[in-house]
Amino acid sequence: MPNKVAFIVVGWNNKDLLEECLRSILDQTYEHTDIYYVDNGSTDGSHGYVKTEFPSVKIVLPGYNTGFAKGNNIGISTALEDPDVGHVALLNSDARLDKEWTERLVGFTRTKPRAALLQGTTLDYYDHGIIDSTHVYISHNGQGTQGSWRHYCQSELGPKKVFGVNAAACLITRRFIEAQPFKQLFDERMFMYLEDV
After folding, report:
1. How far apart are alpha carbons 66 and 41 in whole angstroms?
2. 11-29, pLDDT tens digit by residue?
3. Alpha carbons 124 and 65: distance in angstroms, whole number
4. Residue 110 in contact with residue 35, Cβ under 8 Å?
5. Alpha-carbon Rg for the chain in angstroms
């Protein structure tokens, strides 16, 4: 499998968040990465800021607000035009990564070659002692739910099989994406929220 990781960041009028997000990708210990910033018709100068301050980032301009699901689909299809991309990583523009995030998840796929989607423990942005998500699942009432939401993070959580991952920060193998019977990974009718379920 090719070893490059393509990061997709979808943004809309959030210029103030982009530096921290993009810097956390550039600071990864894993060296083989590209970043694709999909700007959903921002009017706050976001894509100009990225172009000036982060010249290595590839900017994709759909020309309007496509929503989160379609924005990621556009970024994914653009990234997969590069045959060296073996994994796609999705990252919300209001998130930041631990510097070993990519290395650990890609390393895990080497030991578990059938892994399709992976997620690290996502912590609360303001209080890193609180878990935001360890995975997603369908609860008994049929609602998409974040695993371990608002639990205290007392120690490192080990790997486990899960129903799904939180698209706020996840790694998806190219093999899985290309094996799907549909053209888009996310259902574009889900403009924003629950598209990962």
Report:
1. 8
2. 999 999 999 999 999 999 9
3. 27
4. no
5. 16
